[in-house]
Specification:
The chain has 140 residues and is α/β, with parallel strands linked by helices. It contains five helices and five strands. A hairpin with a 3-residue loop joins β1 and β2. α4 crosses α5 (124-130). The radius of gyration is 14 Å and the shape is globular.
């Protein structure tokens, strides 16, 4: 399994969730575990995807659920740092304009997420303990 990491930074005006690795059926539950703990309340949830080279249908569904959940809390979901494949998937399914996007990403958060991914890859015990269930269900 490729390295995967998630890092969260909570700021006054926004919460930044930085993801490193693929956003797919296997990794969606880990992102859901992190985002379920976030309280948006009129803030922006920035999902920094600069470290995400691949997005599948499960990841796309997760983005839609996060967008809805953020809106219910009076906030806004913002996708930053989209690489070409995830951007292309959004365009192909007609959701390119559905999400607010920005080219900016948070290098410090990306480094922290990459370090977590590297640690998990280096120690199989960490990966197996942190490995999520096989289902990718996010509830609003």
């Amino acid at each position: 399994m490729p390295s995967f990491g998630v890092h969260i930074s909570d700021h006054a005006e926004r919460v930044v969730v930085t993801v490193v690795g693929e956003l797919d059926f296997d990794t969606c539950p880990r992102i859901t575990q992190v985002t379920d703990t976030v309280i948006i309340r009129d803030r922006t949830l920035r999902l920094d995807l600069a470290g995400v080279p691949f997005l599948d249908a499960s990841g796309l569904g997760l983005l839609q659920v996060l967008n809805e959940r953020t809106g219910v809390q009076g906030g806004l979901l913002e996708l930053s740092g989209l690489q070409s494949q995830p951007r292309r998937v959004l365009e192909l399914v007609g959701l390119g304009a559905y999400f607010r996007t920005t080219a900016d990403s948070d290098p410090a958060a990306a480094a922290a997420a990459a370090a977590a991914a590297a640690a998990a890859a280096a120690d199989p015990g960490i990966e197996s303990a942190a490995r999520p269930p096989s289902e990718c269900q996010a509830t609003p």
